[in-house]
Amino acid sequence: MKTAIGLCMVVKNEINRITECIEPIFDLLDRIVIVDDGSTDGTPELLRRRFGIAVVRKETGRENWLCDLRNMAFDMTDTPWILTLDADERIAPETLERFSHASHELDVDGYFGPWVNHTGDESFED
Q1: Other C-beta atoms lying within 10 Å of the C-beta of residue 109
Q2: What are the backbone dihedrals phi and psi of residue 60, each rounded to the nearest 5 degrees, phi first?
Q3: Residue 5's beta-bridge partner residues?
Q4: Residue ranges per structural domain of the chain
Q5: Considering only the top CATH level, what class is 5-125?
Q6: Phi, psi angles (nearest 5°) of residue 75
Q7: pLDDT of residue 126
Q8: For 14-28, what is the mean pLDDT?
Q9: 115 in helix, strand or coil?
């Protein structure tokens, strides 16, 4: 049994990163909610054209904008599980697929995987 997974993202001027983030996992997601904080580089248009995603545009102009916008995206997502990513983060499709089939068996409220940082030729886990 597959559990539905939604993706929530907050973006601003991520046209050079967003496709590489979403494309590998696009078909594994049941809902995608992206809130844009005033991109001027065509990010919302790219998402609409390439993936059919209707981006919500909301500029806060406030200091705690990320929390506000991420919470807005959460409120618009109706899936049992929500994945949050920044445009420069990646999740392996096989990891997401494995999770979607096993998550209904888990008696947990959240899941956090390892982060691997890549800097030049070096990689390290956080």
Answers
A1: 5
A2: -95, -40
A3: 81
A4: 5-125
A5: alpha beta
A6: -65, -25
A7: 54
A8: 96
A9: coil
